Amino acid sequence: MDFSVVAVAREDDSPVDEPLRVARVADRLGYREVWVGEGPTWDSFVLATAIGRSTERVALTAGPVPVSVRDPLTIVRGAASCAAVTGRAVGVALGTSSKRVVEGVHGRPRVRPAAVLEESAEAVRALLPVAPGEPVVPGSAFRRRHLPPGGRLTVAAFGDRAIATAARHADRMLLDIVSPEQVRALRAKLHAAADRAGRTPPTLAAWLPAAVDPDPESLAQILRSVAGYLTVPGYSDMFTAAGFGEAVRRAATGADPEVPPEAAGVVGLVGDLEAVRARAAAYAEAGLDELALVPATAGDPGGERTLTAFATLIQAGCCG
């Protein structure tokens, strides 16, 4: 199983430049790839470029970027521009984001999200390899001047239609905050969809919150990131089955969910070194190809403690 690092995932109250610290730690420790998520604070391509200019070797993936607010050429142009400035391979990840972000932040309608994801993935897949001198888009008089960005196309998916899109167009499918049991079920769906599409299945990655020997600040940060999933269909059933039904019911009423600390271990890698080693092995056994660490940084600037611990596990041959 491969390991990568997520420099920025969800919006929180961490310092605005914390993603740069996380990326530098990941680069220094030898992780091969850094993900750069997009949200109300950071444009993912700008931040990816800043990371590329301040690190030595990590490959970069920008996104998931919300397809309802970025057209395919804008996405590919951003990746190619970042690659040109940094000299690194730059991949892109696509996602539908949420109504709260697309409509509440960007002021754009989030309609037909699954269809828009399919249309965008198909177009980005076609545009990524366009070489210099060729039209930037079919029929355009403008010619591509940058080299292709060189990275992979990733599609974030959970529902059946998004999984089918990933199977048809992506090099990699991304899950977010999932249990090993969900990995097993979603991997089966991905492989079935790839069979129907006549393609080799994309690899399967997951963003998972991580904290080794967490202090109270780190644990609280992870629990805040988990809380938003308590009312999401598919996730709520998982948390209820794991014994956190009361937190799910409270969240459904709009009350403070009061997420129990044990919930962090259901969809993440939290605990001492042996606990996270066993948890990573469970994800590998479930069929996850890549574990993308989202390190807690509260109480652990740059995720130094957690990323160092996982680097030790990787060097020791953890999880294949």
UniProtKB/TrEMBL annotation:
<dbReference type="InterPro" id="IPR050564">
    <property type="entry name" value="F420-G6PD/mer"/>
</dbReference>
<feature type="domain" description="Luciferase-like">
    <location>
        <begin position="1"/>
        <end position="289"/>
    </location>
</feature>
<dbReference type="InterPro" id="IPR011251">
    <property type="entry name" value="Luciferase-like_dom"/>
</dbReference>
<dbReference type="InterPro" id="IPR022526">
    <property type="entry name" value="F420_Rv3093c"/>
</dbReference>
<dbReference type="GO" id="GO:0016705">
    <property type="term" value="F:oxidoreductase activity, acting on paired donors, with incorporation or reduction of molecular oxygen"/>
</dbReference>
<dbReference type="Pfam" id="PF00296">
    <property type="entry name" value="Bac_luciferase"/>
</dbReference>
<protein>
    <submittedName>
        <fullName>LLM class F420-dependent oxidoreductase</fullName>
        <ecNumber>1.-.-.-</ecNumber>
    </submittedName>
</protein>
<dbReference type="InterPro" id="IPR036661">
    <property type="entry name" value="Luciferase-like_sf"/>
</dbReference>
<keyword id="KW-0560">Oxidoreductase</keyword>
